[in-house]
Amino acid sequence: MMNSLTDRDRRVIWHPYTQHKGFLPPIPVVKGKDSLLFDDQGNAYIDAVSSWWVTIHGHANPYIAERLYRQALLLEQVIFTGFTHEPAVALAERLLPLLPGPFSRIFYSDNGSTAVEVAIKMAIQFWSNQDRPRQKVLAFRHSYHGDTFGAMSVSERSVFTDPFRDYLFEPVFIDTPTRENIGDLRAFLQRHGRDIAGFIYEPLLQGAGGMRIYEAGLLDQLLTMATGQGILCIADEVMTGFGRTGRLFAGEYLEHKADIICLSKGLTGGTMALGVTATTERIFEAFLSDNKRKTLFHGHSFTANPLACTAALASLDLVQREEFGKNIQRIADRHQAFLGTLRSYPIAGNPRALGTVLAFEINTGADGYINTIGADITREALARGIYLRPLGNTAYFMPPYCITEKEMDQVYDFLVHCLIKFSALPVTS
Ligand SMILES: Cc1ncc(COP(=O)(O)O)c(C=O)c1O
């Protein structure tokens, strides 16, 4: 089959996060339904990673598709400076009251990284517009905020960012809070806080940095301290938003509310690219001026694309149905129960779960993104009709909320199979 989709792909495509040398041919996916992806041979795969953490209601949702079709016949795209449209305004009106904090303005972009870029720019320019520039941005170690340069700059330095090291701006990195280090972190903020424009964090759960969970109460202490120093708090909820952590937003676990919040991924139910950076009136007002230089000079061709906004509005309809919350709770309960099973395998390091996310390390002695355990697991899972994509030796399971009990069992059984298999192997160092 010289002209299969895979062959055509091999000739013309450069895939993301993919070393093309020695790379296994990608699977031609022809359709999706609920939690399943189907290849051109009719094989089904459970999407156990929600297609890079975006798919919340399942694939090819007919309700969202119908709304998109109707909107596409009406208005598919329009420049968003000098023009406005119903889906953009309606989405802002509908989203703002749902957000965890007193947000009053929505700035649209088109993915998670751009939502973060906008947030960083807002925080820095907030200070420079008031002629009180602050020099630094604060971020957590092990964070991941995206792949554009600003987003990379505030992300943990890693194999992802190594070649660009000299081109990234240097934030102040601190550890995520623990009961042991919280006193030091507070003292650090007390000393250096006045130089810091904004503090960006993934609330409660650091995703690409290894599915690391940390305590809401400790983050609250840090945020309170940061705000006391005038630092603008930027919650990156690109991954945690729309139910992932068990509540609609991770910020709902926190007393202290952010000044800026970044959203994408589940925002459109995972159907279309859209980014939101929401902020408060205080920040918006710092950009109001007769001096044109105080404008936020940022925008993208597809800012507030009417189709993407429509998908988000349709997704919110589904979010507000009773079964949405019930499904999240159902998955969260099952993950919690499965932690007991994981704990009985010493090779499963630090089993943990938050909402619909379950994670653990496979302790074979080799940590890190580059090791091959992840690729081995992905390969074997595919043969069993499951798509999993560990982060190095961190295995995680993050399904669309419509996943069935039977599909969950299949994934849990496979994870147990991996633990038994890896337990039998000699430990490497
Ligand atoms: C917390 C967080 N922020 C930002 C991003 C970047 O989003 P995108 O891939 O849409 O640029 C991601 C992506 O995984 C993320 O997990």
Number of strands: 16
Q: Which strand order does the major sheet show?
A: 4-12-11-10-7-5-6
Distance between the termini: 42 Å
Order of helix and strand elements from N to C terminus: HEEEHHHEHEHEHEEEHEEEHHHEEHEEH
Strand content: 15-25%
Total number of helices = 13
Q: Decide which structural class fits the backbone.
A: alpha/beta
Low-confidence stretches: none
User: Tell me about the biggest sheet?
Assistant: 7 strands, mixed
Please compute the radius of gyration using only Cα atoms.
22 Å
The pLDDT mean sits at 96
Bound molecules: pyridoxal-5'-phosphate
Shape: globular
Helix percentage: 25-40%
Question: What is the compact description of this entry?
Answer:
This protein is α/β, with parallel strands linked by helices. It has helices at 5-12, 50-53, 62-74, 86-95, 112-129, 149-153, 182-192, 216-228, 281-285, 306-319, 322-343, 373-383, 405-423; strands spanning 29-33, 36-39, 44-47, 105-109, 136-140, 172-174, 196-201, 205-206, 212-213, 232-236, 260-263, 275-279, 348-354, 357-362, 386-387, 394-397.
